[in-house]
Each structure stands twice: as C-alpha cells, then as structure tokens.
Amino acid sequence: MRYAQGGGLTPREQQARERVRLEAGARFVRGEKTADVAAELRVGVRQVEKWRRSWREGGLEALRSQGPMSTERLAPAQWNRLEQQLMRGPLAQGWDEGQGWTLARVKTLIRRLFHVGYTVQGVWKLLRRHGWSAQVPAHRAIERNDAAIEVWKNEVWPRIKPPRRTWAPTSASKTRRGKG
Q1: Phi, psi of 151 (to 5 degrees)
Q2: Residue 71 Cα to chain centre, angstroms
C-alpha cells in the first residue's frame, strides 16, 4: 500500500493506513528489522523509522489514528447536490464554458449553495477525497480542418523538410590542397 501524496483521505482509507501502522507495531514487538517491515508492508523505510520511534515512545497506542486531519463540512446529501451541479458544468452556474471548473469557482459554488466556507486548498482536498481530479481541456481552434492538416503533414511537409543527416562521417578535412 502506498500512501496518498497529499490530499484528504476517506475514513476507510484512514482505517487502512491505521491497520498498516498497527501491523508494523506488531512486527516491532517481534523484533523485525526496519527494512524488512518496510518491504513487507510496501512503505518507505523512513516512514517505518518514524513509526518505530513513535512506537518506542508510546507503544501501539501511539500508532493509532488521531482522527481526521480535517473534517468535511458537507453532509453526504450536500456533496451529492454539489456533484450534480458540477456535472451540469460551469455554464449552468453562470460562468462561461471556456474556462471549465476552477477551484475558485467550486469554492464560490459551495458558498452559494450551502453557505459553507472553504479555502481553495480545502476545495482541492474535498474534490480529491471524492475521486475528482484536475484536468486541463484540449483547446482547438473552431476553424480547425483535420483533413487539411493530414494533407499538409503527409504531402507538403516531406517536400520542404531538410534531408536527414546520416550517421556517416563527412569529409571535413582541415588540410589544404597543396599549391601546384
């Protein structure tokens, strides 16, 4: 199991992380080496070293979860309503479609719908916790002509591109011809 690279975790994911820590604690009790514990549990050696330090200071209780680092301020019904609004798109909420959803827009939408304040970072964690990810739209010109592009790439470009250099050495000798 690999730990998430930042962002919030669901309660189920937090419980899974706690189980891994407690398993490491049980291995510490048996006297297993840090590198072996890390390899077996598929976590970093440094992380296991931190757990071992906590375990020495406070036993297995020190490895238990301290609870969520941040609590979600939206009820499940509110999250479902927010997700429906996000699926409708920014145009339905009064923003132009060209930009798509930004964290600032989602933050404003949450404030409008539920009168709940989030920071931009909090919105990012909330969205990641529920499986949303950042995506950058592909921008294409309205006037784009895919057929003309293919013709250009297949017919025009091969005629105008420079010849390919060979790997063979050239005869760029520094010697001069002798005077006759």
Answers
A1: -60, -45
A2: 21
The pLDDT-based confidence of 4 (bands split at 50, 70, 90) is very low
- pTM more than 0.85: no
- DSSP code, position 69: S
Tokens, residue 63: 């490895």
Gap between the Cα atoms of 149 and 154, Å rounded: 9
**Cβ(132)–Cβ(142) below 8 Å:** no
Q: What is the pLDDT of residue 95?
A: 86
User: How is residue 66 written in tokens?
Assistant: 């301290």
Sign of CA dihedral 81, 66, 42, 22: negative
Q: How many alpha carbons lie under 13 Å from residue 112 in its C-beta half-sphere? A: 11
Contact partners, residue 18, CB within 8 Å, separation at least 6: 63, 64, 65
CA dihedral 10→16→21→26, nearest 10 degrees, is: 160
Tokens of 77: 């019904």
